[in-house]
Design goal:
Radius of gyration: 20 Å
Number of helices: 2
Shape: globular
Number of strands: 23
Distance between the termini: 28 Å
Largest sheet: 6 strands, antiparallel, barrel
Helix content: under 10%
């Protein structure tokens, strides 16, 4: 597996169109083509599509045979009819120096029943906001296992505390990040209910945060015991769910290297520092990107397992 690969859910630009302004019917576009105060509407029935990307030489490319460059063009701010604000990232696929396709990635939820007025266009915020969307994060209240076996709430940890890791003994925390976000869209957490993966209590994490499972029996048929899987691929509507609404405090734990640690008694990754996530960190948080670790090779590809069955299969596979 290529660990510089990622998959994001985006809308084609044609699904968000001007209903009031300079060009009625025009789709959302890149910064140079946009007019402030234009009003946009999400087409009824608009569906996201998966966009596979690769990081190469600090650039994003489509993860297919074409391999076109994909630019993070801008971060837009839209205002809803109730005065609420919504951020949208614009991604532009380029071929032969021309825009081949435009996509948008809402950082919250857009409704097809509402009109949204464009009130802000920031060219330099897109990379940072994209990085924040990639951050692996635990919710406030998550219990993390210390070197002595005690489990303590993540918000009580401090830099220098020794944390138990799966493969590297005990390791000191080098930096702790904390952000408060609206719990909707790609920032709405996944809740893995108590016991779903032998966890001691509910585990609340960001959708792309990865869980590590050791299978005593290969029930999902991938040919190996170790599994690294994103929380969003475990959602089944019962024991693993998505929780939207309100605000949520997220915490990131950074070590000298990327590790598998223990949260609510189950294995989960620490925060990974790489070219995608680095722009979300304050200057001086850490000096270098994390190098490759063997456990990163164990990630389950999106298409290899049905989400509705994943949690139950992995729970049975990891039982003693």
């Amino acid at each position: 597996m290529r660990t510089n690969a990622m998959t994001i859910d985006v809308f084609p630009a044609e699904t968000l169109v001007v209903t009031e302004g300079a060009g009625p019917g025009d789709p959302i576009s890149f910064a140079d083509d946009l007019m402030l105060d234009d009003v946009y509407h999400l087409r009824a029935g608009a569906m996201t599509q998966e966009l596979g990307l690769l990081r190469e030489n600090n650039s994003l490319h489509r993860a297919d045979d074409v391999g076109n460059i994909v630019h993070l063009d801008s971060c837009l701010t839209l205002m809803g009819p109730d005065g609420s604000t919504h951020e949208v990232l614009i991604l532009v696929e380029v071929a032969d120096g021309l825009a081949a396709a435009i996509f948008f990635l809402p950082l919250g939820e857009l409704s097809p029943d509402a009109d949204y007025r464009l009130i802000g266009v920031e060219r330099h915020a897109a990379t940072r906001r994209f990085a924040e969307a990639a951050c692996g994060s635990f919710a406030r209240g998550t219990h993390i296992t210390l070197s002595d076996g005690r489990m303590v709430p993540i918000e009580t940890l401090k830099v220098g505390d020794l944390i138990l890791t799966r493969d590297a003994g005990t390791q000191p925390i080098r930096w702790i990040g904390q952000t408060t976000m609206r719990a909707n869209g790609i920032f709405a957490p996944v809740v893995i209910a108590k016991g779903a993966l032998h966890n001691e209590d509910d585990l609340v994490i960001r959708p792309d945060h990865r869980i590590f499972v050791y299978q005593r029996e290969d029930r999902i048929g991938i040919g190996r015991a170790e599994v690294l899987i994103k929380a969003r691929h475990l959602i089944n509507g019962t024991t693993v769910t998505r929780r939207s609404g309100g605000f949520i405090d997220y915490f990131q734990l950074i070590f000298d290297h990327h590790h598998i640690i223990y949260a609510e008694g189950i294995s989960a990754e620490s925060h990974l520092i790489d070219p995608r996530t680095r722009p979300a960190l304050p200057e001086g948080a850490t000096q270098t990107d994390h190098g490759h670790q063997p456990h990163l090779d164990y990630e389950v590809q999106d298409q290899l397992i049905a989400s509705a069955k994943a949690a139950a299969l992995l729970r049975r596979a990891s039982q003693g």
